[in-house]
Amino acid sequence: MMRAVAWAAGAGGALAAGYLGLVTGAVPVDLGVGRRTRPLGPQTVDIAAPRETVFDVVARPYLGRTPRAMAEKLHVLERGGDLVLAEHYTPVAGGRLRAVTTETVRFTRPGRIDFRLVRGPVPHVTESFVLDETGAGTRLTYAGELGTDLWRLGQWWGGAVATRWEETVAASLGSLRAEAERRAAPHR
Fold first, then answer.
1. What whole-number distance in Å separates Cα of residue 148 and Cα of residue 33?
2. What is the pLDDT, as a whole number, of residue 94?
3. Taking the model in full, what pTM does it have?
4. pLDDT reading at 19 higher than 80
5. Are 155 and 48 in contact (CB under 8 A)?
């Protein structure tokens, strides 16, 4: 009886540790079997600011010095001319945990920013911000693809991750819009 209890406790602890590692991105699972992909987005936001301003608002924390206000969300590990390797931090589980994703971010001035997941809670994510000029400013279109392994189990996990991922992107787009429009507003 004691062996069964000990085995169950050990198995439960291992499952909990595996789940926490997967959720936070600390234990990435990339098996390459049963890969299923699903779209992310598209999400579109119209911004009353020039395309160059919007591009600069996105690029500055990556290519320049990251503001202290973004330190809890972003840490650039390596900077190049148009490509960076960065960690993104996202609160999960009601803010008690923090998911860490490591991504390359490529900047193609003035109209495109591409993200590619290196390490995170799923084995595959590619995303882009495409900036198009409009009569009233800029239209930013976000789209991507998320992939998971292990057939149906991975598909279920991908759905859970994608929901939170897209919510995080939507919040970021709202902040980006507000900052770009603030910078573009005429100074009084």
1. 9
2. 79
3. 0.88
4. no
5. no
